[in-house]
Amino acid sequence: MPNTTAASDRSVVGQLSRPASFLLALPLILLLAFAFLVPLAKLLLGSIFAPTLTAEQYLRIAQEPIFVRIFLRTVQTAAIVTLLAFLLGYPVALVMSRLGGRAAMIVAACVLIPLWTSVLVRSYAWIVLLQRKGIVNSVLLNWGLIDQPLKLIYTEGAVIVAMTHVLMPYMILPIFSSLRSIPPELERAARNLGAGSWTSFLAVTLPLSLPGVYAGAIMVFILSLGFYVTPALVGGPHNLTIATLIGQQTTELLNWPFAGALAGVLLTVTLGLVGAFRRFLRLGKRV
């Protein structure tokens, strides 16, 4: 009886009223408002009121083919990066979930240490690898596989490879979390019923890990849509994405209204994808 009373007292103490909860969250709300919401609102309003109410900036995006191509290229690049991150990251997450002890710590360190390294440093590392006199071209020349250096840097392929490397931890960690939550007895039961290793993986492990796959995919895809540093450094001026185009409009051309319109379209696409993802995930849970 005393234990029950103590537990109930702790539950009452742990419950906070709405005003108290709001006061605790108020500093974060104010920081988010002043650091993100207010500048974003000012940028979006500047694209509509330039200086009077107009849709000229948004019509320009739809009417000029180059901007439509940049948007489509960005979405295509994000989709390819997401697919590659899944194909390369799922086996790593599967190995992480089934290892233990020191081996698991080593694999986890290999995933987390690049995540803790600056994106700028990792992007410059790819420049060192892929430039005309870089490591890759030097090795190929020394082995006699090519006669002259290949153009590896400042290409769309370089952007895809570098972005996949940078964003892969965001795919691995959610999948790893889902795989770790799967009871090992389920796969053993499938084996006892006669299923092979591949069949048990397809019938048990993969379906139960899909929430982690969905979370990692949407995270990588959305980050790829707005990625700036790696495409700007590795892709160069001839492989513009939406983020690099917005940066060009603000820093070089000083066309803030048009940059706000680009940001508004990007934000709309991102929110639409997040909403579609959440709806798809709810439907998947019902099934």
Automatic annotation (TrEMBL):
Membrane-spanning ranges: 20-45, 66-93, 99-117, 158-179, 200-229, 258-277
Membrane topology: Multi-pass membrane protein
Domain of life per record: Bacteria
Span of domain ABC transmembrane type-1: 71-275
Location, primary (coarse class): membrane
Pfam families in the record: BPD_transp_1
Transcription as UniProt keyword: no
Compartments (UniProt record): Cell membrane
Keywords: Cell membrane, Membrane, Transmembrane, Transmembrane helix, Transport
InterPro entries: MetI-like, MetI-like_sf
Family according to the record: Belongs to the binding-protein-dependent transport system permease family. CysTW subfamily.
The name this protein goes by in its record: ABC transporter permease
Organism the protein comes from: Bradyrhizobium iriomotense
